[in-house]
Each structure stands twice: as structure tokens, then as C-alpha cells.
Amino acid sequence: MRLATRFFISHGGIVVLSLVIVSFLVYGGARRIYQQQSRLHQKQQLLDFALAAKESMIQHEDVAVLGFMRSVLKNPEAAYAAYYNPATGVHLILPENLQKGFFPAEEGDPDTSVLRRLPNGEQAVQWTSPVAFPNGGTGRVWMGYSQKVLDMELGEQTKVWARLGLEAGAAALLIGLLLSLGLGRQLAAPLLKIRDGTHLVRSGKLDSLVEVRRKDEIGDLARDFNSMVAQLKELDGMKRDFISGVTHDLGTPLHAIRSAINFLQAGDAGPLTEKQAEYLLMVSNSTANLTAFINNLLTTARIEAAKVDPYPEPVDVYAHVKELVDLYRPQAAEKGLKLILTRKSSYLSLVADVTMFRQIVLNLLSNALKFTAKGEVEVLLSEEDGHFILEVRDTGIGIDPSHQLLIFDKFYRVHQPSGSPARQGSGLGLTIVKGLAEAHGGRVTVESTLGAGSTFKVVLPKQPARF
Fold first, then answer.
1. Above 60 in pLDDT, residue 25?
2. Same domain, 80 and 133
3. Structural domain tally of the chain?
């Protein structure tokens, strides 16, 4: 899972969890606040009722308090209102259907409410308050509120708060997810640049510095990466200079040795004994191998320095490949291998550098024969979508998947199974194949199964863009 996706999911989950918790807290808090406000309103209405009753008692007029009771009952929450005047013995209760068989008991604390059941079966929250007379007597007033209506209004208010909370939560969730996505991408973007830079460095492109303008740990990582690339580039330049110098210095004496060997083998210095000729042949073969290695080093150095300049011309690919395959037939026959050349198209055309093309074929053939102990090696020639395709298949030891990206590196050698015979090589052949293919605007790929062989595929444009 990518870092941005992981960051988005984790922080999005935190946002969702936080919103759920906040929603529950807001929901519970809203209910509590509304209930408290409702209780305060009920107590205040009770106090107003007590004040009106006291004024009526002072004026010895119960009609005024009756009007107040009727106005109070216009509130849908109010279930009943009751009044007792001990001076006149008047007991009033509204609505009128509660006149018979229902009158609140005189006990009750004005700061607390009690739950009473009405004759119709509904429950009411009852508040009681005493009313002191000027002459020392004490009357009483009661207010009852329908529990059903209170619950309905609480539900309606809760729905309003819930809707507002959902709307605000949805907006917050959207903003939070967008911010998480943006922050995740912002965090991952420089890391992706560093990853891409790593791939470029891995492929040998040491001019690819990472531009990350940050002052945090990621910025420090990018600056350390750029410093490392600069050092690698400096070391790579020193290495190329060293290789170029060494190969040049070795080339001159090797040429002299080669000339001397040819002079001796031709008998110009006198006849050779059988033993002398045998040793001279060994020296000649070793010199040829060393010369080939030096030439590979020079080619690799030119590829790395981007100084490979192909000279494109029409190539009779089948004729050249057949010549090289025939050249390796004795070696294949000596190992008991079957060497096959197959052309999938009747007409094959390619414009490329002939020398470089032959070097690609030679290196792939040499590798296939080297790492194949039994079975066959097949060379296939074909065309597809304006490209020439060269495939070299073998039934050799194969390449471990974890090593398939490394085989094109300089001096890398395929890990050989234990017990298999050691195979000599410089580790430059596939590096040269890749470099020469890319110099023509092409590419090389490999498909391999450990123990079941490998297939190297070179794809070259039939007509180079520069030609």
C-alpha cells in the first residue's frame, strides 16, 4: 500500500472516529441542555404562578389567578394547573375534566418534581410551590407538564441538533479527508522524487538530482541523497578515467605482444618445436582473451560517457546472425547442445550500426552457450509494430527473479548453483548489450525461470529516428 493511501486511510479513520465521538457528545450534551432549560422554564413558570396566586390572595380575588391558569394551559406542555386558597377554601384545577377525582396532594418540594399519572393514563411532571399569606396562612399552587409532550419536544429538538450535527460533521469529514489526502500527497511527493532519483541512479544516470525544498527530515534525506549522488558521480568519473587510462596503457603492449606472436607463429624467426608452438598458442589465446576484455572495457566506458555514436546503415540481419550462429556451432556441438536459428518473418529489415549489432548477437549467444549445459539454444528473428526483434532462448540454469534487475550491471555475474562448473566471464557482456541497444533507441528485456532457462529479447526500431 502506498504511503499517501495509508496516510489517507489512517488519518481519515481518525477524523471519522473523532466525528463519531464528538457527535455522541454533542447529541448527549444537546439533550442535557434542553432538559435543563425545560426544567428552568417550568420552575420559572411555577414561580410566576405562585406570585399571581399571592396577589389574588391579597386582593381576595380568585378570578385573576384563574385567568393566569387559563393562559398557562395554552402552552401544549402544560397538562394541568391547580390552586388552593386556605382562606376561602377554594380548590381550583384546570382543565375542567380533572375537577372530579383528581387534585394534587399538598406535599411536595418546590425544588424537585415528581411524576404523577393522570386519569387518562398519561404521566405528568408535577411541580409544587407554597404561597405565603400576609396573615401567616399558606396556600399552594401546582403545575403539571405532560411527559409525552415533553418527550416529543425533546425528540424534535434532538432531531434538529442531530441534523445540524450531521451537516457539520459531513462538512468536517469532507474537509478532513481532503486535508488528509492533500497532506498525504504532499508527504509522499518528495519521497516519490527520491525513489525516481534512486531508479535513475540505479540505471547509471548520475546527473539526476532531487529538487525538494523542505526543511524537515524529508528535506534532509533529499539533500543527503543529492550529496551521495554527487560523490558517486565523482567516483564514477574517476573510475572511467582510470579504466580508460589502464586500457589504453595495456592496449599498446598487447598489440606488440600480438604482433610478436604472429611473427613467431609464421616462422619468420626460425622453425618452432612442437612444444614451443603449443606454448605459443596458449599465449596467443590468452592475449586474445585479454584483448577482448580490454575492448569490452573501452566499449563500456564509451557507453557510460554517452560517446557511443552508431553509424546506421541497412543490415542484412539474417545473413549476419547466421554467420555468427555458424561460428558458434562447433562450441555448441562440443557441449552436446542444439543450436537453432529461426526466422518468423520472410523479410527482415533493419537500419543499424553493423558492428554494434553483431556485438549484441555475439554477447547474447556467448552467454546462452556458457550457461547452458544441456538442451538447446535458439535464436529467433522477427518484426512487430515497426520494430526488429532478436530473441535468444536457452534451457540453461536460469536466473533468480531477485537478480534479474542486476544482470545488466557492470561486472555482475549470475549466481551459479552449487556443484555446477565455474564459468568464466568479465560481467560486461549484458551491460554492453543494454548500452548498445539503448544507443539505437531500443531496449533489452529478460524472462527467466530458475533452473528452466532464460529468454533475452532485444527490440530495435527498424529505422532510427536520427537516420
1. yes
2. yes
3. 3
Nearest to 83 by CA among 125, 98, 37: 98
pLDDT at 425 over 50: yes
Residue carrying the nine cell digits 532510427:
464
Q: In this structure, are strands 78-85 and 90-94 parallel, antiparallel, or unpaired?
A: antiparallel
Are residue 457 and residue 423 in the same domain, yes or no? Answer: yes
pLDDT tens sequence across 442-455 = 888 888 888 788 88
24/134 same-domain check: yes
pLDDT at res. 467: 44
Q: Look at 22 and 7; give whichever has higher pLDDT.
A: 22
Is the backbone of residue 212 left (phi > 0), alpha (psi -120 to 50) or beta? beta
> Domain with 453 in it: what CATH number?
3.30.565.10
Are residues 365 and 379 in contact, defined by beta-carbon separation less than 8 angstroms? yes
CA distance 5 to 17: 18
Q: How many CB atoms lie within 10 A of CB 396?
A: 24
- Quick check: helix, strand or coil at residue 46? helix
Residue 208 or 399, more confident = 399
Question: Is residue 159 in a domain?
Answer: no
Give me the domain span that covers residue 21. 3-153
| Domain final residue, candidates 270, 304, 338 | 304
C-alpha cell at position 276: 614451443
Predicted TM-score (pTM) of this structure: 0.47
Q: Specify whether 149 is located in the same domain as 10.
A: yes
Residue 170 confidence (pLDDT): 77
Largest CA distance in the chain: 161
Amino acid letter, 247 = T
Q: Are residues 86 and 142 in the same domain?
A: yes
Q: What is the DSSP string of 367-416?
A: HHHHT-SSSEEEEEEEEETTEEEEEEEE-SS---GGGTTTTTSTT--PPP
In this structure, are 262 and 404 located in the same domain? no
Alpha-carbon dihedral angle through residues 106, 108, 110, 112, given to the nearest 10 degrees: -150
Separation between Cα atoms, residue 96 and residue 56, nearest integer Å: 20
For 373-393, the pLDDT digits (tens) are 888 999 999 988 888 999 999
Dihedral-angle region of residue 427 (phi above 0 means left; psi in -120 to 50 means alpha; beta otherwise):
left
CA distance 163 to 145: 27
